[in-house]
Design a protein that fits this description.
Radius of gyration: 23 Å
Number of strands: 30
Distance between the termini: 44 Å
Helix content: under 10%
Strand order of the largest sheet: 2-3-4-5-9
């Protein structure tokens, strides 16, 4: 379950980026060999501290908007798909977890001038013997990747109560649905705020001190309890499902531009709280749900209010699920026991859908999502403060590892027990809650935690993203 941030403290205004990769050691201190840190295994000795290696990222930026945010969504924009050139601009919607109900808001924000540079997986050899890159090479990279500090612009819409989860509609991204801890589900038209941000080029946080009062398009109070599960259909515009902690799921149908018909009779197939929902990426009437009861249910809206199929997925609560949009037979699920599994729906008749099961994380899985660009890649976040990226198509190749070591002329101290499918481990955030891939910027991930947001682009996942013929 592991999902709430209750009675949080407001984030202080400070430069979060300063403690991520800013080495403070003196040049007179002899350098020590770089070791791979194993979270949950290695321990810091007195006087030791972890340092982020900036060369592991094409781009990394940390920020916050005040109160912690349990959930957010990336808003699709009109800036183009398959964007590879820095600097980048990204739009978001999120909801706060404030100390008092009246202090909460929906945040609509834009982060622009996200700079970075593409790095080679195997560094090019320098002409001098020091092994350091030349200044001219660095400056050239910075010129290609943009420069300066990212700009955050924010607008707030008043929201009574904490926002448990928020999602933007795929087909009309200015339409968002929010789950409140008060038990209400509301739909919002945020077009005026997104338009204002798109037209604004002013630097700095805009609208941070003022909160706009706006009525939602819909305020549904038919759920018997608060909830977290919510998803828009990627196939049928305006079709929505919402699930609550009393095991009830309600179906929403768009009847006009700003009105919904909400079925008062719930879909019931779980014996405990519905934790997450996912619509099929291809079928208009199919969705899946997961629950604290450890099961995953498959639903067809044409077949009544009971699931078409249901199966035991984990030995503990199933917290999150993600339906693969590149390979629609595959579903990923994350559990409260830290494990995550890959299911193949084609094996339903055989009684066991699991084709892969991973026990890497030591604490509850809080978010899981397939890459929108590569069918075998997914990202996972956990309460162990790790965000991990996996490529399920990878297998251990001893010859390739030997060749890499020879090219880098370094001792690669990767632990032997790390799964070969593990591509990347990102740390530095406390109490990670949710992550999303950016569908229009290949390789970009965004995560939220108790201490704010991270935008990251790991350098070693370029090869898993199709180039589509681009240079």
């Amino acid at each position: 379950m592991a999902r709430t941030i209750k009675n949080p403290k407001k984030a202080k205004r400070k430069n979060k980026g300063s403690n991520k990769g800013d080495g403070s050691s003196s040049s007179s201190v002899p350098s020590m060999p770089t070791r791979v840190w194993q979270p949950g295994v290695d321990r810091l000795e007195e006087g030791e501290e972890l340092q982020c290696d900036p060369s592991a990222y094409n781009s990394l930026y940390a920020f916050h908007i005040g109160w912690p945010c349990l959930s957010f969504d990336i808003v699709c924009d009109s800036l183009g798909s398959d964007r590879k050139d820095f600097p980048h601009t990204v739009y978001f919607v999120t909801g706060t977890q404030a100390e008092k109900a009246a202090w909460n808001s929906i945040g609509v924000f834009k982060v622009s001038n996200i700079s970075g540079k593409r790095r080679e997986l195997i560094p090019a050899k320098s002409e001098d013997d020091s092994g350091m890159e030349s200044e001219s090479d660095d400056s050239e990279d910075e010129e290609d990747g943009g420069s300066g500090t990212p700009v955050l612009q924010l607008r707030k819409v008043a929201h009574h109560g904490c926002v448990n989860r928020i999602r933007a509609m795929t087909q009309q991204p200015h339409i968002c649905a929010s789950w409140a801890d008060s038990g209400h589900v509301q739909v919002w038209d945020l077009s005026s705020h997104l338009n204002a941000l798109a037209e604004s080029e002013t630097e700095g946080v805009q609208g941070a001190s003022s909160v706009f009062n706006q009525a939602p398009l819909v305020n549904f109070c038919g759920h018997k309890d608060e909830g977290y599960a919510i998803d828009w259909s990627p196939v049928v515009p305006g079709r929505l499902v919402t699930g609550d902690c009393k095991n009830c799921i309600h179906l929403w149908e768009l009847t006009s531009g700003s009105a919904w018909n909400i079925d008062a009779t719930p879909y019931i197939g779980h014996s405990a709280s519905v934790e997450d929902l996912q619509w099929s990426p291809t079928e208009p009437n199919a969705f899946v749900s997961c629950s604290v009861d450890g099961t995953i249910a498959i639903w067809d809206t044409r077949l009544g209010k009971s699931p078409a199929a249901s199966f035991k997925a984990h030995d503990a609560d199933v917290n999150v699920i993600s339906w693969n949009r590149q390979a629609s037979c595959m579903l990923a699920s994350g559990s409260d026991d830290g494990t995550f599994s890959i299911h193949d729906f084609r094996l339903l008749k055989e009684g066991n859908t699991v084709v892969a099961h991973f026990k890497y994380h030591k604490y509850p899985v809080t978010s899981i999502e397939w890459s929108p660009h590569e069918a075998s890649t997914l990202a996972v976040s956990s309460s162990d403060n790790q965000l991990t990226i996996w490529d399920l198509s990878l297998e251990k190749d001893e010859e390739e590892e030997a060749e890499f070591k020879a090219q880098t002329k370094e001792q690669v101290n990767a632990p032997e027990d790390l799964p070969p499918q593990l591509l990347f481990v990102h740390q530095g955030q406390k109490d990670l809650k949710e992550l999303h891939w950016h569908t229009q910027i290949p390789g970009m991930l965004v995560s939220t935690a108790a201490d704010g947001f991270n935008i990251l682009m790991p350098s070693n996942i370029q090869s898993t993203i199709p180039s589509n013929g681009a240079a």
